[in-house]
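Hi V.,

You were right to ask for the full record rather than a summary. Here it is.
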Amino acid sequence: MRVLLAVDSDSVVGVLEALLVARGFAVVRERSGAKALERAAEAPPDVFVVALELAGPLDGVELCRRLRARNDTRATPILLLASSADDDLRTLARDAGCTGFYTLPVSPSALLKEIESARPRESRPPKP
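Predicted structure:
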């Protein structure tokens, strides 16, 4: 299962990538919304994890809107990471099509649980 991390923070992406790789996920990293869109067009992932703040002109909410406008990523889960839990931001993210919203610092176990729920049942690793 492929996860595309569109995250501008090296510390956040490092922790998330290590966690996901340890659980058997293939991880693709991009720092900008534009690069994430390009990568999604080349090979759509099974899940997107997107930071609100990204390098370049596209923020996480706009990236989500553009991914939802594409046929090949319309139904792909998109989890948004933000530094604020503001209700207006949550509404904006939901309206853009984000399927999950997490406030930084994110609970790795909660995020992992949601990512794993997108994995087809037959390909899930056995529980320890």
